[in-house]
Specification:
Layout: H1 15-35, H2 39-66, H3 72-96, H4 101-127
Helix pairs in contact: 1-2, 2-3, 3-4
Length: 130
C-alpha cells in the first residue's frame, strides 16, 4: 500500500503544478517503500523524503520571491511546518527505535497536502495567472 494516495482534493487547477505534486507524491511513496525495514534504513528514507520535499519548496519559494508574492511569509511558514513534522518523526524513530512510521507519516502528509495544495498553492498559482 502506498504511503500517500493522490486525491482530487489536492488539485490546484493547474496541470503543470498538479503533475509536479503527483510526481512528488509518487517519489515519496517509492522512497518510503524502499526504505522500510531497519532503523537506519528507515531514517535514511525519511531523510530522503525530507530532502525531496525541501527541494520542491525551495523552488516554489524562489518563484514567490521573484514574483514579489504578497503571501510569501505565511506560505513559507506552512512549508517549514511540514518539514518540522518530518524531522519530529525522524527524532522519534531515532530515540525509540521504531514507530508506526507509515501511519504517522501518512496522516501528517495527507492532512498537510490536502490543506496546502488546495489553499496556499492554488492561491499562488491563481495570482501568477497560470
Amino acid at each position: 500500500m502506498a504511503l500517500l494516495e493522490w486525491k482530487d482534493d489536492y488539485r490546484t487547477g493547474f496541470r503543470s503544478i498538479d503533475f509536479e505534486h503527483q510526481t512528488m507524491i509518487s517519489s515519496i511513496n517509492q522512497v518510503f517503500e524502499d526504505g522500510t525495514g531497519e532503523k537506519e534504513t528507515l531514517l535514511a528514507a525519511l531523510g530522503e523524503i525530507h530532502a525531496l520535499i525541501e527541494a520542491h519548496f525551495a523552488l516554489e519559494e524562489k518563484i514567490m520571491r521573484d514574483q514579489h508574492y504578497p503571501a510569501y511569509i505565511p506560505h513559507k511558514q506552512d512549508h517549514e511546518r511540514l518539514l518540522d513534522e518530518i524531522l519530529d518523526i525522524m527524532d522519534t524513530v531515532e530515540k525509540k527505535g521504531e514507530l508506526d512510521t507509515a501511519s504517522a507519516l501518512s496522516e501528517r502528509l495527507s492532512a498537510w497536502f490536502g490543506i496546502h495544495f488546495a489553499s496556499f498553492d492554488k492561491d499562488l498559482h491563481t495570482m501568477m495567472g497560470e
